[in-house]
Design goal:
Length: 207
């Protein structure tokens, strides 16, 4: 069974199909970019793989189990990191959430921020961060724990060229021991480290 697997994955909402009969798989050691138009279902697809969106039909599996059952193996970054900015929480506290029921490790959380050049943000309130800074923090949360599957929705959104380069380097190294599925709006550096790309517009086809 692949690390990430979807069979006839379909999601119906708001009066229409966000996804329709999607078949997909990704293995450990593989970086797959997901391309497609706005409204083509890319974020819904990533959320369904992460267990944040319930399929109407079909299934999504992580190591042969439901995403909920495999939650400890999944690192996820949302496209929109601007929710609940009034909540008084620091960047490093966001990253520590990666450890779920395990004892939160401040050291590991800080190391993840440092990998992304974001260690200076550790004690800053999330509400005070720019969009690009928040994106680094949520990506740090995704990679902090020893997850085996990274599900990334526009991880370089709002990030400058130097930041994109650093993130691409980090992900290129991480993919050696993980399966990475990354929604991208044709970000050149991410596509360069992709093993393959698929095009999603309700259904998947090769890019």
């Amino acid at each position: 069974m692949p690390a990430v697997f979807a069979e006839n994955l379909s999601v119906f909402r708001d009066g229409g199909w966000a996804l329709k009969s999607v078949n997909f798989s990704a293995e450990i050691g593989e970086f797959v970019s997901v391309l497609g138009p706005n409204g083509g279902g890319k974020s819904t697809f990533i959320k369904a793989l992460a267990g944040l969106c319930k399929p109407t039909n079909g299934k999504a599996l992580i190591f042969g189990k439901t995403p909920v059952e495999s939650a400890k193996f999944i690192g996820y970054t949302p496209q929109d990191t601007a929710h609940n900015l009034d909540f008084p929480i620091t960047a490093i506290e966001i990253v520590k959430m990666a450890f779920l029921a395990e004892k939160a490790s401040k050291k590991k959380a800080f190391e993840a921020l440092k990998m992304l050049g974001a260690e200076a943000l550790a004690e800053k309130k999330v509400a005070a961060l720019s969009g690009g800074e928040r994106q680094r923090v949520f990506l740090a949360r995704a990679i902090a724990a020893d997850v085996k599957v990274l599900l990334l929705d526009e991880p370089t959104s709002g990030i400058d060229i130097d930041g994109e380069t650093l993130i691409a380097e980090v992900l290129s190294d991480l993919k050696k021991t993980r399966a990475i599925v990354c929604v991208s709006h044709d970000k050149e550096k991410l596509l360069k480290i992709s093993d393959r790309a698929v095009f999603l517009d309700k259904k998947i086809r090769n890019a």
